[in-house]
Specification:
single chain, about 280 residues, alpha/beta, 6-stranded mixed β-sheet, two-stranded parallel sheet, about 45% helix, globular
Length: about 280
Amino acid sequence: MQGGIHPDLPGTAYFDIAAEVKRRVPDLHVHAFSPMEVVNGASRTGLSIRDWLVRAREAGVGSLPGTAAEILDDDVRWVLTKGKLPASAWIEVITTAHELGFPTTATMMYGHVDTPAHWVGHLRVIRGIQERTGGFTEFVLLPFVHASAPIYLAGLARPGPTRRENRAVHAVSRILLHGAISSIQCSWVKLGNDLCRDVLQGGVNDLGGTLMEETISRMAGSQNGSFKTISQFAELVAPLERPLRQRTTTYGQPAPDRLAAAAASDGVCGAVRGGTRTPLPLAMP
């Protein structure tokens, strides 16, 4: 669960949202609020990052998405984000979350104003954090979608990564994070089925799940949709002859009743067909 930074949104609104979700569905794991939202919430409440995260945990947040990482190099970040969240702030939020017992994901967006040297530097930072905290559940690679991206239209970024670069960056991530982060995830929303199959044969074992109201990739020009049924995921991986299994957010085994419910609906409940989408993370052994 993530959203844009509304200028009128109070920093306590994040707590209210999480608490209301838990009130309605007490057993639901709430994976919510990127480092950008945490910094925003802390600044608007006057709380420290640590105290804000403690309040979020009390409200029901169980883990955090490690998005807004982009490339953890401030020269690159200044071009991409105009200094909205320096690398040090992202690292502070993530490491503090880990210290408090929140697992998080880690991400890298590549293929814009970066170089392979930036990828390696980013991966070294991620591995260093993981060796100190052990808090990352997975590393998620996000190729830059350029078609309608303002930074590309302004002539500042290249038109996303090449097919070879996509294969290389996923494979290098597997190698450099070996022994530290065991799950490397690809984004079917950004890559599409064919490129997902490529990287699933070169270091990737994890597929991003379905989404609700995904707009970032679509606004940038992605045409790959924002949710898939279980059958569609199975079709995606069938040519690879690798087994597909459902997982929990923290890489556990879903309870039998959850597996049965997913199978009965093909992972798409009636609300999804009406326009509301819920997450279904999937992994490949």
